[in-house]
Design brief:
alpha+beta, three-stranded mixed sheet, three-stranded antiparallel sheet, 6 strands, elongated
């Protein structure tokens, strides 16, 4: 079994790609990872690929829908890490799901960790360290005396219309942060 990472993509090459080409390149990377997985399990079907994931998650093996979902905002801001870590991470889920014949195993359990180490030559890390500020679905920051709270666009619009919110910890009225992000 191979124990080396997938062939590297140059960070300069990735940085130069426009968004539409970046998505195409990511699909190609999924197929490179699929080829590696098919060395172990030749019958492994190709996953469908979507770029519709939002929030703090970089990727998701959406096994029920038969594919992988990726966060386009985090992909654009973390291209090399996506190609080197996130895509193999999700492909490891895809392989383990099919090897186990369904979702009976722990998502980041022994089998997944083994695929990450033995097939992709990667440390089996569960979380990423990306800056998620741009990808957050709650971009409106409010302050109180003890912390910062993040609101969705809808909740923020209620504040604009006169609604007031209080912190559950310090009971102070929350105030919108108008000068930059905290």
């Amino acid at each position: 079994m191979k124990t080396s990472p997938l062939p590297p993509w140059s960070p300069e090459q990735l940085a130069a790609l426009p968004t539409h080409a970046l998505h195409k390149a990511a699909r190609l990377r999924v197929h490179e990872a699929l080829a590696r997985c098919q060395e172990v399990y030749p019958e492994l079907p190709a996953p469908r690929v979507w770029f519709d994931l939002k929030g703090a998650s970089a990727g998701q093996a959406h096994l029920g829908k038969g594919g992988l979902r990726f966060n386009p905002v985090l992909l654009a801001g973390n291209r090399s890490a996506f190609f080197d870590e996130v895509i193999p991470h999700e492909m490891a889920h895809w392989l383990v799901f099919h090897l186990a014949n369904g979702p009976r195993l722990k998502p980041h359990g022994r089998e997944w960790q083994s695929v990450m180490r033995d097939l992709f030559g990667l440390a089996p890390k569960v979380t990423h360290q990306f800056d998620i500020q741009q990808a957050q679905s709650r971009p409106y920051a409010y302050r109180c005396d003890c912390q910062i709270h993040y609101f969705t666009k809808r909740r923020h619009s209620l504040v604009v219309k006169g609604r007031r919110y209080r912190c559950r910890e310090c009971d102070q009225t929350l105030v919108y942060c108008t000068i930059g992000k905290p």
